[in-house]
Amino acid sequence: MANDLVSTICLATPAPVAVLPAMNQQMYRAAATQHNLEVLASRGLFIWGPDSGSQACGDVGPGRMLDPLVIVDKAAAHFAAVKRFATS
Fold it and tell me: Which runs of consecutive H residues, i.e. helices, occur in the chain?
């Protein structure tokens, strides 16, 4: 069940969905977060990131959002692979 527009779209679409986790390193390392990411991956969603480094809260560690250019590169590579598959 979805309770917001983004979740509803993700549940309704047949298109590939990528999730880009970004949060404090303690939240990212939490067992519940890791479990939920594993569940999403097992359902075919792509998990891109997170990166490690300085965070807004002052912590350093995993959970930082991927650099926007890295996100663009990952999306371009993904769709290029899909296009190659579709045309072969």
Answer: 5-12, 25-29, 31-42, 68-87
Give a yes or no: residue 39 inside a domain: yes
State the pTM of this model: 0.83
pLDDT, mean over the chain: 93
User: Which residues lie below 8 Å from residue 55, measured CB to CB, with a gap of 6+?
Assistant: 24, 25, 61, 63, 64
Catalytic residue among 57, 76, 77, 81: 57
Q: Residue 71 is part of which domain span?
A: 15-87
The answer to whether residue 57 is catalytic is yes
Number of structural domains, the chain? 1
